[in-house]
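As agreed, record minuted below.
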Amino acid sequence: MNKWVILVLSLILMATIIIEAVIFLRIFRFPFVQITFLGATHSLTHWIGWIGTLYIAFSTPLQPIVKRKAPKRLKAMLNIHMAGNMLAVLLVSIHFAHQVTRPLSSYPDLGTGVVLYAVMVLLVATGMAMYSGKVTRFSKQTRFLHPGFALTFYSVIIVHILQGVAII
């Protein structure tokens, strides 16, 4: 286990917790700015959430591919996978905190968003548990849960997006 990776992951996790707390306590909020990109107009925090989600969605499948096709690169890819996904979780957390703390007059429907965020947190928790090696007693369960949460993440994000664009 690389101590530098643990340090970086710990710093990203602490930053995520602090930034979320600052937003939840309404000490700081990103300004409401509408940004149009490829014909879609969303707020800055929505685009931040999109960036984080798209990173997770496209980088996560690379991990098992590298594991099978290039096992010599697995350790480096694992470090990139974890650090990149933790940064993506930070971005998604900013979006989630802003959504949850919106004024009542413009409060969103949080149904799939809450489920999606919970699944993402469980995905991170099982990934960290697998990497740390602290759960060797439950390694079979953890190895089952982590990909299961990844599949759940993909399923819920699809429904969340379809709801967001009013298809369902």
Observations:
- The first strand starts at residue 34 and ends at 37.
- The beta strands are 34-37, 40-43.
